[in-house]
Amino acid sequence: MTVMEQRSAYRPAPPPAWQPRTDPAPLLPDAEPYRVLGTKKAEKADPELLRRLYTQLVLGRRYNVQATALTKQGRLAVYPSSTGQEACEVAAAFCLEERDWLFPSYRDTLAVVARGVDPVEALTLLRGDWHSGYDPYEHRVAPLSTPLATQLPHAVGLAHAARLKGDDVVALAMVGDGGTSEGDFHEALNFAAVWQAPVVFLVQNNGFAISVPLAKQTAAPSLAHKAVGYGIPGRLVDGNDAAAVHEVLSDAVRHARAGGGPTLVEAVTYRIDAHTNADDATRYRDDAEVEVWRAHDPIQLLERELTKRGLLDEDGVAAVREEAEAMAARLRERMNQDAPLDPMDMFAHVYAEPTPQLREQQEQLRAELEAEAEEEEAR
Amino acid sequence: MTTVALKPATMAQALTRALRDAMAADPAVHVLGEDVGTLGGVFRITDGLAKEFGDDRCMDTPLAEAGILGAAVGMAMYGLRPVVEMQFDAFAYPAFEQLASHVAKMRNRTRGKMPLPITIRIPYGGGIGGVEHHSDSSEAYYMATPGLHVVTPATVADAYGLLRAAIASDDPVVFLEPKRLYWSKDSWNPDDPQPVEPMGRAVVRRTGTSATLITYGPSVPVCLEAAEAARAEGWDLEVVDLRSLVPFDDETVCASVRRTGRAVVVHEAGSFGGPGGEIAARVTERCFHYLEAPVLRVAGFDIPYPPPMLERYHLPGVDRILDAVARLQWEAES
Could you tell me which residue ranges the Transketolase-like pyrimidine-binding domain spans (chain B) (predicted)? Predict the structure, then answer.
């Protein structure tokens, strides 16, 4: 037999036919951000829900303004404002049941407060008297996460643990557009998808990661499209349309609770203020761009809808504003009181029991403080 | 009275037994990591656990260490007691942000409201002929991260006892398993594991009068061997097994050094910025007037871990330890 004959006699078995593991079509986000306000769909929206959203949006805006003012008075070390993003913040809190969990990033103080956390305790991190001021178990709100996207795998783990225990708990995790570039974003979405964990990922695409615009952050068609790579649905929503964000998030929460697995929601919005009070946004963007977004303001959008449907009049607007002013006054008053500080706290919670080494250091500081107090007394 | 005969058991078997007993004792204990399920782990430490307790209790995860540890944080938040396996020392680095920024800090951040009882098992150290990234001694990173316990067994009994204690701890524990001791044998009865000293305590493995060798993990057997060899030179060496790097047992270590007046710290990790510097400083600060000589260090060189064909030149061995002991200023006594 010649070599050629041998070759023609060789008939390898074909490899198994390749099949896509998931049909990508149903996972794809809409071509345009989903909107409710100003469309026919708004007529079907629950008036009570719209009123509640509106009140909370106005309160939230006032909270942002007050907190920013507190930085100028030295009462807050720093404040990353969510002005312009209130619809996302409020909807994230409102779409959850009491037993659910919220995993906020550092810009999400409003969502934390809307979930029921004390407005002063929510500011502890930013005031700087402790790293986190509220008991996470009281309202099922994880501490504000400063390292980007690192809270997302926590949400996945918690949701998975809840499911293992047989509890129908959903975790909602919040992250920004910049955070979607982090490895933890990828790992969290992948884990959630593989485990079919009841998690909703809310990306607030506010256009900037401090100064870097989205174009330098990703080449994806949209951030919502990233979901498809993990085999989970991606949803694109107008982040300034409170009714739309609430509807999309509520659907995703329901889907997760029913065992349908995670969803990635991209809410397209805009950070009206600078990154924080310490940032200068004029260095990287034009006022004209900001003005375009000011015209698409989440409060005005909702106010217009409510007024059109006769659910809100001038008195109603005034009443909500009055409520917001009262909230701001209370916040101001409480924040103007000095936070109680005990330097010994620094050693108290590092471990369940301080190590012998920490006890020694604690004693050293105690002695220093006592000497300091004696010196002051002697003066 | 019946006496149960002690059979030889390996450290790997004792670790497996500790995981199994912990899982049987507490349904909150969940094992997760890469290949820990069906395969039983690349070192077979989780062998049989998925079969006995189910895939949910001993869970194969996607291949992503930050995701594994991050998910463990969330599981611990919800009341579970996760035991994470990092496949090799150097493969734990992707999880470092979760470890340093959340695992180590969550209790403190929340003023004790949200403790994270997570055990992170990491096979570490060299001496098994591993290619690059399979032989690191990364304990100094973990020691420098407040909020973590750092524990490493050197005996079969400690492997069981310390792992049970780590899993039972309400604090996060980095549990460093000396991989070259996985197959070391000792008489040990798995059905009647005797209690060991608690986490945080060092143990004198060999008493002596001439000098103290302060060591831990994979270097403990090396130091015991060195102590035997030193008898020929007329030195009677004491060997202290630290067992726990954080918290550090100053009491046991200093009591030994005060007795002997001389000390050498021995570990595989690099010398510069390594655990030995901290240990030598602590001993000097506390035992200065008892010391006949400066505290010396025998450590790995300050190089990236060498390729396997060169590792025997790198690892602290008996000769290098005895050379250090010889430099402990014995002239003054003669």
Answer: 9-184
Taking the CA atoms of residue B214, residue B220, residue B221 and residue B225 in that order, the dihedral angle to the nearest 10 degrees is -10
Q: Are residues B90 and B29 in the same domain?
A: yes
Boundary-marking domain end, from B157, B188, B219: B188
- Which CATH number characterizes residue B50's domain? 3.40.50.970
Kindly report the pTM of this predicted structure: 0.96
CB contact under 8 A, A150 and B98: yes
Contacts of A352 in chain B (CB under 8 A): 107, 112, 115, 169-171
| Chain B CB within 8 Å of residue A367 CB | no
Q: Within the 329-358 window of chain A, which residues sit less than 8 Å (CB to CB) from chain B?
A: 345, 348-352, 355-357
Pair B242, B283: CB distance under 8 Å: no
Question: DSSP secondary-structure letter at A145?
Answer: B
Most B CBs within 10 Å: which of A137, A160, A167, as the mutation test of the B interface?
A160
Domain that holds residue B177: 9-188
Distance from CA of A152 to the nearest CA of B (A): 8
**Closest CA in chain A for residue B62:** A191
Whose tokens are 């400083």? That residue is: B281
pLDDT averaged over every residue in chain B: 96
User: Rounded to an integer, what distance in angstroms lies between the CA atom of residue A63 and that of residue A334?
Assistant: 13
For residue B54, the chain A residues in CB contact (below 8 A) are none
For residue range B249-269, list pLDDT tens digits in order.
999 999 999 999 999 999 999
Q: Is residue B2 part of a domain?
A: no
Cβ under 8 Å to B: A residues 175-194: 183-184, 186-188, 190-191, 194
Cβ of B101 within 8 Å of Cβ of A159? The answer is no
pLDDT at A1 over 60: no
The CATH code of the domain that includes B252 is 3.40.50.920
How many domains does chain B contain in total? 2
Interface touch A164/B200, C-beta < 8 Å: no
The reply to whether B116 falls in a domain is yes
Q: Does B1 have pLDDT greater than 50?
A: no
In a domain, B211, yes or no: yes
The verdict on B173 and B309 lying in the same domain is: no
Q: What would you report as the CA-atom Rg of chain A, rounded to the nearest whole angstrom?
A: 25
Q: What is the ipTM of this complex?
A: 0.96
Tell me: do B19 and B155 sit in the same domain.
Answer: yes
Mean pLDDT, rounded, for A238-267: 98
Q: State how beta strands A208-209 and A212-213 pair.
A: antiparallel
Residues B29 and B175 in one domain: yes
Q: Which two tokens stand for residue A197?
A: 């964990």
Asked if A154 and B78 come within 8 Å (Cβ–Cβ), the reply is no
pLDDT tens readout for residues B107-128: 999 999 999 999 999 999 999 9
Res. A287 pLDDT band, cuts 50 70 90: very high
Average pLDDT over residues B19-35: 98
Cα–Cα distances (Å) from A129 to A64, A122, A357, B188, B275, in that order, read: 20, 12, 24, 51, 33
Confidence of residue A379 (pLDDT cuts 50, 70, 90): confident
pLDDT in tens, A147-183: 999 999 999 999 999 999 999 999 999 999 999 999 9
**Number of inter-chain CB pairs under 8 A, A vs B:** 138
Verify that B86 and B217 share a domain, yes or no: no
Confidence of residue A6 (pLDDT cuts 50, 70, 90): low
In a domain, B102, yes or no: yes
How far apart are alpha carbons B77 and A376 in whole angstroms?
A: 44
Q: Is B149 a catalytic residue?
A: no
Tell me if residue B269 falls in helix, strand or coil: strand
Helix (H, G, I), strand (E, B) or coil at A272: coil
Same domain assignment for residues B222 and B154: no
Q: Do residues B244 and B220 both lie within one domain?
A: yes
Are residues B99 and B40 part of one domain?
yes
pLDDT tops 70 at residue B3: no
